[in-house]
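TL;DR need structure tokens for one chain.
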Amino acid sequence: MTEKDPLVISKAFEEQGWHKPVELYQKYVEEQHRGERVALVAELGGEFAGYVNVIWNSYYDYFRECNIPEVSDFNVLQKYRRRGIGSKLMDKAEEIIRERSRVAGIGVGLFSDYGNAQVLYVKRGYIPDGRGIHNGERYLKYGDSIVVDDDIVLYFKKLLKI
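>> reply
TL;DR here they are.
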């Protein structure tokens, strides 16, 4: 991701009805310059198609404590899905992680909007980390009442082949 990408990416998601502010991607570029993340962008025919991030120090406590880099904020525009773009982005993210770690982590939302991602991660060999559902602040336990939103996540990890 370069300085020219934030506006292009934000506009592309706006066109499909998703609000993803330019400032988010500007933050990604700044964090990439500081070495905190690698932000990968995919294009098809010269047009933006999707992106994924590798975060070296995950916001998720368990991954951070175990030095597990996290694949994060993985998105492919709807009009470009089912063309292998997501798989290529994931391949590259895992290749980058493999340079520093034998394990990759990833989180996925629990409702149907995340269904394709849930299936993709399992097919790629990711397994739940066994710690349960997390809401961005803590693990949820039996009897908790929650609002199911993008913050309700199940985390997975994968042993990468060398």
